[in-house]
Amino acid sequence: AQNEVIQLTLDDFFESAKRGGPPKSPSPTRCPALIKIDVEGMELEVLEGASKVIMACHPVLYVENNCVASSKALIQLIAGFGLYRLYWDVRPFFNHANFRENLEDIFTDALVSINMIAVPTREKRFSLRNYVEIRNAEGGYYLHEYPLQWKNTTAVITQHGDADGCVR
């Protein structure tokens, strides 16, 4: 037997709450404080489908941005909301404080998680002094344009792929 999967944008999901919600789904009762997006190359589409919620609620956004091909469009879309300060968040895949307490790092320094944090300009509770602000007004759409502190040195880290596509 086939199962039907209901597909809704975040905007449609919140709009449906006003009409009693989609079948077999919980209905949101208030604005989200945070939206985390890591959907392997579909981040732009998710943001576009959440634009009404973003404009109405001003949540913090945590968005994967590891591909050169979509980086400029992602940054331009978030900047276009006119609500956010945007920062790079680059982390190694391995965390010494991992759940299983495994001390073996099987990843190389070439494998990092590249994300952005978008904090509403009206939000004053965040301390982002260890993050690098994205200067999109100056054209800084790509991570390699920003020298970062990485393992006690200054490093240039690049996103995957090129302007035509993303190789993972």
Automatic annotation (TrEMBL):
Cross-referenced Gene3D superfamilies: Vaccinia Virus protein VP39
InterPro entries recorded: FkbM_mtfrase (IPR006342), SAM-dependent_MTases_sf (IPR029063)
Residue ranges of domain Methyltransferase FkbM in the record: 4-69
Domain of life: Eukaryota
Pfam families with a match to the protein in the record: Methyltransf_21 (PF05050)
Protein name as it appears in the record: Methyltransferase FkbM domain-containing protein
Organism, as annotated: Octactis speculum
